[in-house]
Amino acid sequence: MKKFLFLVFGFIILSSSVIVAEGSSINTTITSVSIWNMVVFRGEGFHRLHNVEITIYQEDVIISKLLTKTTDRGDLFMPLIITNLSPGKYDVLATDKIHTATTSFEI
Asked: What's the CATH number of domain 12-106, 3.40.190.10, 2.160.10.10, 3.40.50.720, 2.60.40.1930?
């Protein structure tokens, strides 16, 4: 079961990564808030007020798909509480069907 937290305050940044692709970008930050460890996805350069699908995969196997909406500036913010992710490297693909960005993170 995946749990999502939409409003988060008091982030402690542990690690982050960013890769730019096709004019849009997405970065990940591994953080801890209270008792939760989470991955926070932040992006920019996407089509404004559109849905963005974030796909997390490991070794070409899809682990999870998330859906979020961009702001009127084309930015996105999507936290994901880490529940069933085992240690290792994960790749991320974010697309609004117009723009695409990729990145990776490690737990």
From this structure: 2.60.40.1930
Token reading at 55: 């796909």
pLDDT in tens, 26-68: 999 999 888 889 999 999 999 999 999 999 999 989 999 999 9
Confidence of residue 79 (pLDDT cuts 50, 70, 90): very high
Pairing relationship of beta strands 61-69 and 76-81 according to DSSP bridges: unpaired
User: Cα(70)–Cα(1) distance, rounded to whole angstroms?
Assistant: 25
| Start-to-end Cα distance in the chain | 19
Predicted model pTM? 0.76
The domain limits of the chain are 12-106
Token pair in block for residue 72: 């009127």
